[in-house]
């Protein structure tokens, strides 16, 4: 047990308590007896203060040249690199992620810093010919204003970075509302932004409960943009409020990702992809492989291989070196996974391995669920359609390639997708026909690299993309500029031509 970290809100460059004085606790999901951090139970007054701070800072921050803004973010990347191991250990304790994955989470933040800093010297607009003589036309990117960033617990450094960094590069100011399960990670991250020297009010941090602080931010009249990552249910509510109040909104929501394994696939390679996709981060990723669509010719063999490999996976605290699967984040999510196993059994699915809460030895003190394989699943079952967000994968048998693609597309989600095949024609047909924002050929359903767009279709998102240059379209407005040097009135879209 360690002494709990005392977290504060960060508003206008100062670390402050909630105005109520109330605090909440963040506990170690591997051992719920340990309090990792205490953090403010903030309310509307704290949100008002943060928004006022961000609004005031915006007026000067937007006027700093983008390359100069980028230098601050580059410094954040350097500081993250220096503290990578410290933050990874904290992350592993606070949200349970295995240490190698926690290091990867921090590394993604580092990559984001250096990549987005480069965009500070680009932020390209366009020049284009005018239809009229002696007239110049161009487009340029303008900041949106004050951005509320509402982030989940499963990537507590990477996701705040891939929102905050491009937002700041583009000239916006931000208010980060992290998940209540990971306040310590958010605090350490904002401490690094502070150490990089950002002016007061440019980045703000408000802790608290989503239904209170998150809702207040989304509804606040002086917020210009909301960037939300979380469940589709909550995202729908966020989108509805933003539509009603004319705010820009970027939604990155759930997934029900599938990996197809065709009869000509490299089964050893497909196995490694399936195990990592299904059970990495304990299945608590929007890109997790929750469905394995298997061609009937290899179904039995591949299922045996998967059972054998899954039975060898070691559960434990993420910071223990032998651990391969860490805990579920909290009791509520553990119960959700357990409920879906009850649903699976009632629908006729067969539990091949796992299917129970893990309580042996030290596991009894945490929120652990056995890695689980469900067989005899059909596409109409709830476990084949709804996001579980745990270490559970469903096996679905198909007869041919066309059926595999149809089953893959048969959910309301469309984030990441995967097909294992050695047939180049099938591979290109899959790229064309799969309904998803990301498609892997002979790779698992993992996320995007920082310089490529990330996001999905259907109920996974609202058409925006994070990461890559596409994220600039989230955090900037396009402005069209004309310079008429003809010394006469020229009217566009009026037919002045003579025949």
Features:
499 residues; alpha/beta; Aldehyde Dehydrogenase, Chain A, domain 1; Aldehyde Dehydrogenase, Chain A, domain 2; seven-stranded mixed sheet; five-stranded parallel sheet; 37% helix; globular
End-to-end separation: 86 Å
| Relevant CATH superfamily of the largest domain | Aldehyde Dehydrogenase, Chain A, domain 1
Largest sheet: 7 strands, mixed
CATH architecture of the largest domain: 3-Layer(aba) Sandwich
Q: Record the strand order, biggest sheet.
A: 15-18-19-14-13-21-22
The tally of structural domains comes to 2
Give the CATH topology of the largest domain. Aldehyde Dehydrogenase, Chain A, domain 1
> In percent, how helical is the residue content?
25-40%
Oligomer: single chain
Structure classification? alpha/beta
Number of helices: 14
Shape: globular
Care to count the β-strands? 24
Name the CATH class of the largest domain: Alpha Beta
Radius of gyration: 24 Å
Structural summary, described in words:
With 499 residues, the chain is of the alpha/beta class. The chain folds into 2 domains: 5-253 and 461-480, Aldehyde Dehydrogenase, Chain A, domain 1 (3-Layer(aba) Sandwich), CATH 3.40.605.10; 257-441, 3-Layer(aba) Sandwich (Aldehyde Dehydrogenase, Chain A, domain 2), CATH 3.40.309. It has helices spanning 44-61, 66-82, 84-95, 99-119, 158-169, 183-195, 210-219, 232-245, 267-279, 296-311, 331-347, 401-408, 424-433, 472-475, and strands at 5-6, 9-11, 14-16, 23-28, 31-40, 126-129, 135-143, 146-150, 173-177, 203-205, 225-229, 248-252, 257-261, 289-295, 350-353, 357-358, 368-369, 372-375, 392-398, 413-414, 416-420, 438-441, 457-458, 476-484. The strands form 7 sheets. A 7-stranded mixed β-sheet has the order 15-18-19-14-13-21-22, with helices on both faces. It has a 5-stranded parallel β-sheet with strand order 10-9-8-11-12, with helices on both faces. A 3-stranded mixed β-sheet has the order 1-5-4. Helix 4 (99-119) runs parallel beside helix 5. The longest helix has 21 residues, at 99-119. It starts with a strand and ends in a 15-residue tail after the last strand. The model has no long low-confidence stretch (mean pLDDT 96).
